[in-house]
Amino acid sequence: MTSYNGQGAAAGASQREPVGLTELAAIVDRVRASVESVIEGKPEAVRIALTVLLAEGHLLLEDVPGVGKTMLAKALARSVDCTVRRIQFTPDLLPSDVTGTNVFDQHRRDFEFRPGAIFAQIVVGDEINRASPKTQSALLESMEERQVTIDGTSYELPSPFMVVATQNPVEMEGTYALPEAQRDRFMARVSIGYPSAEAEFAMLDLHSAANPLDDLQPVAHAHDLLKLIDLVKTVFVSDPVRRYAVQLVASTRTSPELRLGASPRATLHLVRAARAHAALDGRDYVLPDDIQSLAVPVLAHRLLPTSETQLSRRTAEQVVLDLVARLPIPRPQGR
């Protein structure tokens, strides 16, 4: 019998932990523990953040003010020994503040490039939808191509590179809706949500005396992340699971409840995230369960419901869950 791991080995042999995943688990556990020492009671949000980090994606944290979006982004950034820059998006922020600009040097009598805040390995974009669409668009090239072009010259961004952006719901005052092209570049969107009563009670002790971020120290290095990212790329995805991902994304384009479905980039992001999700579970192959677990965070923010869907108070998340429930799960090869 050949299963999703595509190895055709005996059951006992297929359950052996692949070389490299032990190291991955140890490093990820340290980063997870570091972040969760600051963010109480949100293990799923932390797991999605780590999944996106290992899949070389970008993360969008969306929720009402005061639930810990920026705290999560900063805790993740401080837990890894990478260069970190924070951008506070405001209505008067200029694109050149993000990407950089050429400045004339009087001594050299020539223009010199001054890098902007985007030139870091982890970029924390706070309240991204409070900047104008023009400034938001300054991130498009860097998030997709990992480079910045100024006056015809392209500058490579460091590796690894990840944008962790926070935003308030569009209904909030002083916000601009992110363009579809911008949302499509985020691998996943996570809503933090309010903490449980127990977590909020524990937070009173943790955050009252001092800022817990001050005590965070890096528990992983940039070169460790690069090794883990390369390891995640080797996670096997069988043809049935690939087709399942393609069919799931394609179903969003034909759904009568949506006026805009997910793009082919969404399919790539879904499979890449599924590889990281499987690696976090100690597997070197992807299951349909990985695709299903990531369908909402990876796909929902890219979709535009029809006006009828909105009038019936159905969200894009609910539409995705219905599509997942209706789509047949692929059977393992050889059955």
From TrEMBL:
<dbReference type="Pfam" id="PF17863">
    <property type="entry name" value="AAA_lid_2"/>
</dbReference>
<dbReference type="InterPro" id="IPR050764">
    <property type="entry name" value="CbbQ/NirQ/NorQ/GpvN"/>
</dbReference>
<protein>
    <submittedName>
        <fullName>MoxR-like ATPase</fullName>
        <ecNumber>3.6.3.-</ecNumber>
    </submittedName>
</protein>
<dbReference type="InterPro" id="IPR027417">
    <property type="entry name" value="P-loop_NTPase"/>
</dbReference>
<feature type="domain" description="ChlI/MoxR AAA lid">
    <location>
        <begin position="251"/>
        <end position="320"/>
    </location>
</feature>
<keyword id="KW-0378">Hydrolase</keyword>
<dbReference type="InterPro" id="IPR011703">
    <property type="entry name" value="ATPase_AAA-3"/>
</dbReference>
<dbReference type="Pfam" id="PF07726">
    <property type="entry name" value="AAA_3"/>
</dbReference>
<dbReference type="GO" id="GO:0016787">
    <property type="term" value="F:hydrolase activity"/>
</dbReference>
<dbReference type="InterPro" id="IPR041628">
    <property type="entry name" value="ChlI/MoxR_AAA_lid"/>
</dbReference>
<feature type="domain" description="ATPase AAA-3">
    <location>
        <begin position="58"/>
        <end position="187"/>
    </location>
</feature>
